Here is the input.
Amino acid sequence: ETGVTQTPRHLVMGMTNKKSLKCEQHLGHNAMYWYKQSAKKPLELMFVYNFKEQTENNSVPSRFSPECPNSSHLFLHLHTLQPEDSALYLCASSQAGTSGVYEQYFGPGTRLTVT
Amino acid sequence: AQTVTQSQPEMSVQEAETVTLSCTYDTSESDYYLFWYKQPPSRQMILVIRQEAYKQQNATENRFSVNFQKAAKSFSLKISDSQLGDAAMYFCAYLRGGSQGNLIFGKGTKLSVKP
Here is the structure.
């Protein structure tokens, strides 16, 4: 295990539902990330939080809403999703310093299916 | 923009043999990091090996080593004495130095190990 946990591991939701994905890291890191992993495509970075502040938002639709209440927890709130949002959502964490960030440690992911 | 290319969608190796996975990248930066990540089926993505661009010496971690050719922008992964547990998706990734964590991934290479 990498020290990053995600819940739930599997989620099926309708297009009108609201749900949240949770990520927790036990590594003492100060940066956390959300990625989307779709079949046949490279991992796509969605959001970056450094020191609990969002520093990157890679043109993600507003139906995805991140929340980082502290350096150990990260949430991804979902609402009014589309079938093409079905994917594996990965959380990662790393240590960020004045010279940048270092390698990222990934959670097991949440397999999301939108019906 | 930086890109990472893995030209081998699938590879196969006999147990105890050696296999090399290819990765090329494109960047105009001089300060960056390169990584190989392993994602076993239905399991967490884990870091295999890391290379700093300013280091000429190739990184090595037990049976895993890289051939880092900075001028050619090539970063291949060699797995020696392959084991059944090495079967996984392998992702090459690039991180710009001083960045806020925007890891750029290749599409991955699926490695099968034959007993």
About this structure: The mean pLDDT of chain A is 89. The interface with chain B takes residues 1-2, 4, 31, 33, 40-43, 45, 48, 50, 55-56, 58, 90, 94, 96, 99-109 of chain A (CB under 8 Å). Residues 50 and 115 of chain A are 33 Å apart (CA to CA).
